[in-house]
């Protein structure tokens, strides 16, 4: 499994070039940074956390932060140590959270050494995320998502399954893709509300049971429209998810 990127593979591009381009908003450069560092950062986080899933969370977080903070990186040639520093900070925080939660829980021995490439874990994470975001969709959209995304029914087959024309199916999928993206955006913002520096949303969501519904999606989406902090986070989080999924949403 490889990640999609438009950066040509036959030319070695320096970290410095990538960092500058990504800081200027070049998504392909961001994806290239991800391709270059997601796996080593994941291995690094596994080493600290001894847990592949926690490490995946950590790496996702690193790229969310990196996407937002890259423009502030003064020395573009320091990309590599900078990414590792973010990873280290995140892993340390995850460790202290874990210690607080369960001081004497034994960790399974195979957690750190189990097989399976990083991408597999990342795709699992994304699948769970999309499953949760699906809670913010209408019943019909959810049904189409289930067919197209989970069962891989697409094209003419999907049109037949839905009993509509191929053209209508294409339009439906286009709309669904937008809705899923909006729903994912709202979910990602909501999940990070307490840490995100938006006191208003954090207050709105205090006591939220993590159930993501159509009503929640609309409430959060309305807030994002009027809040630049949350909107900026939504953008970078979606970028990170798009990279994590390796174009999985595009397959819809
Ligand atoms: Zn906000």
UniProtKB/TrEMBL annotation:
Pfam families: Sigma70_r2. Keywords: DNA-binding, Sigma factor, Transcription, Transcription regulation. One of its GO terms (biological process) is DNA-templated transcription initiation. The keyword Transcription applies. Residues 33-100 form the RNA polymerase sigma-70 region domain. It comes from the Bacteria. Gene3D superfamilies: 1.10.1740.10, Winged helix-like DNA-binding domain superfamily/Winged helix DNA-binding domain (1.10.10.10). Belongs to the sigma-70 factor family. ECF subfamily. This is RNA polymerase sigma-70 region 2 domain-containing protein.
């Amino acid at each position: 499994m490889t990640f999609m990127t438009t950066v040509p593979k036959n030319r070695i591009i320096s970290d410095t070039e990538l960092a500058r381009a990504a800081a200027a908003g070049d998504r392909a450069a961001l994806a290239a940074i991800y391709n270059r560092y997601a796996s080593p950062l994941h291995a690094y986080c596994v080493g600290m956390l001894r847990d592949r899933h926690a490490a995946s969370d950590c790496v996702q977080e690193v790229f969310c932060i990196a996407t937002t903070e890259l423009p502030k990186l003064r020395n573009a040639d320091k990309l590599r140590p900078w990414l590792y520093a973010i990873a280290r900070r995140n892993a340390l925080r995850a460790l202290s959270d874990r210690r607080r939660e369960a001081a004497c829980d034994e960790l399974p021995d195979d957690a750190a050494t189990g097989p399976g490439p990083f991408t597999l874990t990342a795709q699992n994470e994304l699948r769970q995320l999309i499953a949760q975001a699906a809670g913010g969709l209408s019943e019909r959209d959810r049904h189409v998502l289930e067919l197209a995304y989970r069962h891989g029914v697409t094209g003419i087959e999907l049109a037949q399954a839905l009993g509509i024309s191929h053209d209508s199916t294409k339009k439906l999928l286009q709309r669904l893709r937008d809705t899923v993206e909006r729903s994912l955006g709202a979910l990602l913002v909501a999940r990070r509300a307490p840490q995100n520096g938006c006191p208003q949303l954090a207050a709105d969501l205090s006591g939220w049971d993590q159930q993501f519904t159509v009503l929640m999606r609309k409430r959060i989406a309305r807030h994002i429209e009027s809040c630049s902090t949350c909107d900026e986070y939504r953008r970078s989080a979606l970028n990170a998810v798009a990279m994590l999924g390796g174009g999985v949403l595009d397959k819809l």
